[in-house]
Amino acid sequence: MQLKKGDQAELTVEKIIFGGKRMAKYGDVVVFLDEGMVGDVVLVEFSGFKKKFYEARVVEVVRPSEKRVEPACKHFEKCGGCQLQYMSYDDQLKLKEGFVRDCFERIGGFEGTNILPIIANEKEYYYRNKMEFSFGYDEAMNFTLGLHVPGRRFDILDVEECFLESEVAVDILRATREVMKKLGWEPFKYSDGTGFLKALYIREGERTGERLVNLVTSQFLPENFDEGLEEFIEIMKGFGGDITSLYWTEVISKRGERKRRIENLLFGKPFLTENMVVTDESGEAHKLSFDILPQAFFQVNTMQAEVLYGETLKAARVKKSDFVMDLFCGTGTIGLFMAKFVDKVVGVELNEESVKSARENALKNGIENIEFVVGDAKRVAAEVSGHPEVIIVDPPRAGLAPELVEIINDFSPARVVYVSCNPATLARDCREFLKYGYKVNYVQPVDMFPQTYHVENVVLIEKVGA
Fold first, then answer.
1. Which of 8, 41, 213, 291 is 20 to 30 A distant from 67 in Cα terms?
2. pLDDT tens digits for 363-411?
3. Which residues contact 280 (CB under 8 A, 6 or more apart)?
4. 73, 103, 162, 421: which one is catalytic?
5. pTM, rounded to two decimals
6. Are 34 and 151 spatial neighbours (Cβ–Cβ below 8 Å)?
7. How many Å apart are CA 89 and CA 316, to the nearest integer?
């Protein structure tokens, strides 16, 4: 009998693939599922039929896998923040290491790549230093403040607990929800461009204990805005030293004009200060202090970022006479740590706010042998003079454009250190480097995000014969 949409069947989940899809089989045909643990027997409903595979959604877990564990959070599987809470942490690490190996073999076409054992995170929970919570509505159009429902673009789940950021952050979330509902302020509707409340950002300094809260809204101010904002400020002040900075960011969006953000400091410091400590191969610890503005990029897991940067320093194998170019440098964290060990660093970043933070952080830490340039990595890199011995790249999830790989090759650096949050585009780009006489020495996975399928990697790419 030929299957049609809505037909159901019992299948066994065989594999979890990078990106979160699950794989089962219906006869000899691969079926991609939206959820499930390896070993689960699930009742599925077929939703799509392609030439080489089917798609289905899980209706019910008929027989759970023996490896399933009880999720810590009551919102798990209703919320898009975590995907792997039903797996033990050891199993999560094996899964992520497998993701990396699979991407290098299947997408990159590599054989026998030196993939090192994944570096675990010391914290399984409460490890994030930043969360973005969205204002919105649930399916019944009730006011909500929380995280997106998986697969539903506009539905927001009211988050009452969260195990990713600190417990104080959840208290701030609850207090904000209560006051906004009391004030009657409406969430912004992206479907028709009306409403006021957009998001609540909470940043935390893991090593400093500082906390920056940022309320983001549209330009459509409610009638009771002035008195409502005062009430919100007083409630946030009630957290005492737990909140060191409070911002209100107004997003001005008009047809035919570039979107603008107006940041209003309501009380406290204009930035959040965080310290980071990176240990070099000799065991010496190097501390830097960073002032982070509301819109600036900063790694969201401070402690594991220190491990990631230590691995980057190790892979770079720099010496005092080296010139290092740091592409997609963000707030300059990697380059600033690298500067102590080399002659010169040039960091390139498109985000102006991040570069502003990077320059200020260089001054704050007394680092003079580093320069930061605002602009597109391809354009700026092509204009840089000199011969960098090492080039560091830490691109967005989309990875590197082939033209940028070519530009990097034009410099002919002895080593490229590729830091990546996406093993699929990483493997693709590493393959591109082979065309120019480079080889992949090793891949070091680092788990920055327990309970999710995300995994960071540090890859040492070397010029053959250099």
1. 8
2. 999 999 999 999 988 888 888 888 999 999 999 999 999 999 999 999 9
3. 286, 310, 313, 314, 341
4. 421
5. 0.91
6. yes
7. 30
